[in-house]
């Protein structure tokens, strides 16, 4: 939904609601991002080459790059953005102007081949994520890849090959495990033993049938949206207890964005992900998580409220503002270039493969099994 085209009272109500949920600065940036998407210069701004701190490149200069990537990089590290790229030159220029970069371009190779840039954030269209990441890794740059990291098995293979050979590190934009409440959920299930029950209900945005997400090369909504919850669900299950995973889909013949996916993990843990896209939710995507493992019962609503019950011990958590973990995901990737640590080939392959197999299960309406990573698949580090 283009909120800039709604009536004034709706926009004001939206801003007031977001102020309560996200606070002033994040809300202001979200508002600015909406208008950034529509900006067209009568005359493109002059290039600024006076930022000596700039060493970060951004590929894809849309709403997320403006409201989230640029915002949190600037907040935590100052003017570290050197260059911005987008197929729409006005968006690249607007993002560059906002965060004080040295140049903007429509050519990703200019940024990937820039020796002054050592980390690239990728937030372009889904089919290009892996392609840009492979190019950057081949130049030994670190990368932060927004979801999804790949849209095909071929991309997954080539991305893992590039990771194996590169000195650059890889971070992924799966933010929910990096949120304060997400970490509490993980700590709580890790403290128990045995199989678990996991249930997600996700009310996502309605998308028109001609939305670019549904282009065959872009991966659809399983890879474009549901991947967030697939990855987080996988992370909740202990690594040694995950595979093989049995994937059983239930889909709607009438609606492209409605799924019920069930997973059965090796240890008997069960997970159900329900995604419904019936309209537009006023506060953005709404999500509810319920988990039961051992003596602990967990209820998480919109990463805004969390209840953890362990026998007669009940703890309620409600931060001042909603936090989906975007800041943690952005900063974790940035710190990778200093710490020398990033996601492993095994981690990336198993998460991405589960998503690809889930997409296959949905599209074929059949039961599919996802297996664990084996060293014979790739000659890893």
Explain what you see.
This protein has 2 domains: 39-172, Rossmann fold; 176-323 and 344-370, Dihydrodipicolinate Reductase, domain 2, CATH 3.30.360.10. The model has no long low-confidence stretch (mean pLDDT 91). The protein is of the alpha/beta class. The chain is 39% helix and 22% strand.
Uncertain ranges: none
Distance between the termini: 44 Å
Taking all Cα atoms into account, the compactness measure Rg is: 21 Å
Strand residues, percent: 15-25%
For the record, the CATH architecture of the largest domain stands as 2-Layer Sandwich
Number of helices: 11
Structural key phrases:
381 residues, alpha/beta, Rossmann fold, 2 domains, six-stranded parallel beta sheet, 11 helices, 15 strands
Q: Could you outline the blueprint of secondary structure elements for this entry?
A:
Elements: H1 8-22, H2 24-36, E1 56-59, H3 63-77, E2 81-85, H4 89-99, E3 103-105, H5 108-112, E4 119-122, H6 126-138, E5 142-145, H7 153-165, E6 170-172, H8 180-190, E7 196-205, H9 220-236, E8 245-251, E9 259-264, E10 270-279, E11 286-293, E12 296-301, E13 305-310, E14 313-317, H10 326-339, H11 345-364, E15 368-370
Parallel strand pairs: 1-2, 1-4, 2-3, 4-5, 5-6, 7-10
Antiparallel strand pairs: 7-11, 8-9, 8-15, 9-10, 11-12, 12-13, 13-14
């Amino acid at each position: 939904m283009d909120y800039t085209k709604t009536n004034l009272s709706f926009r004001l109500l939206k801003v007031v609601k977001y102020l309560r949920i996200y606070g002033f600065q994040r809300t202001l940036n979200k508002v600015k991002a909406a208008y950034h998407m529509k900006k067209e210069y009568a005359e493109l701004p002059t290039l600024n080459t006076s930022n000596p701190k700039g060493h970060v490149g951004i590929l894809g200069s849309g709403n997320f790059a403006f409201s989230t990537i640029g915002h949190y990089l600037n907040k935590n590290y100052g003017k570290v953005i050197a260059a911005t790229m987008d197929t729409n030159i006005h968006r690249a220029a607007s993002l560059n102007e906002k965060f004080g970069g040295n140049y903007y371009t429509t050519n990703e190779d200019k940024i990937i081949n820039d020796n002054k840039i050592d980390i690239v954030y990728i937030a372009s269209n889904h089919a290009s994520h892996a392609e840009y990441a492979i190019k950057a890794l081949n130049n030994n740059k670190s990368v932060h890849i927004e979801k999804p990291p790949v849209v095909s098995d071929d991309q997954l293979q080539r991305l893992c090959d590039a990771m194996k050979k590169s000195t650059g590190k890889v971070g992924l934009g799966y933010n929910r495990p990096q949120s304060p409440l997400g970490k509490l959920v993980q700590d709580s299930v890790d403290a128990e033993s045995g199989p678990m029950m996991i249930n997600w209900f996700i009310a996502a945005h309605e998308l028109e049938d001609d939305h670019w997400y549904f282009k065959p090369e872009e991966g659809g909504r399983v890879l474009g949206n549901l991947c967030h919850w697939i990855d987080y669900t996988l992370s909740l299950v202990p690594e040694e207890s995950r595979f093989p995973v049995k994937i059983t889909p239930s889909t709607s013949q009438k609606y492209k964005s409605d799924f019920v996916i069930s997973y059965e993990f090796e240890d008997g843990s069960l997970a159900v992900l329900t995604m419904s896209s019936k309209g537009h939710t006023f506060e953005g995507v709404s999500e509810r998580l319920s988990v039961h493992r051992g003596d602990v019962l967990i209820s998480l609503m919109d990463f805004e409220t969390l209840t953890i019950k362990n026998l007669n011990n009940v703890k309620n958590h409600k931060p001042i503002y909603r936090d989906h973990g975007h800041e943690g995901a952005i900063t974790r990737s940035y710190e990778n270039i200093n710490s020398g640590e990033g996601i492993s080939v095994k981690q990336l392959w198993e998460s991405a493969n589960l998503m690809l197999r889930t997409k296959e299960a949905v599209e074929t309406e059949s039961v599919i099994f996802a297996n664990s990573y084996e060293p014979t698949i790739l000659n890893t580090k």
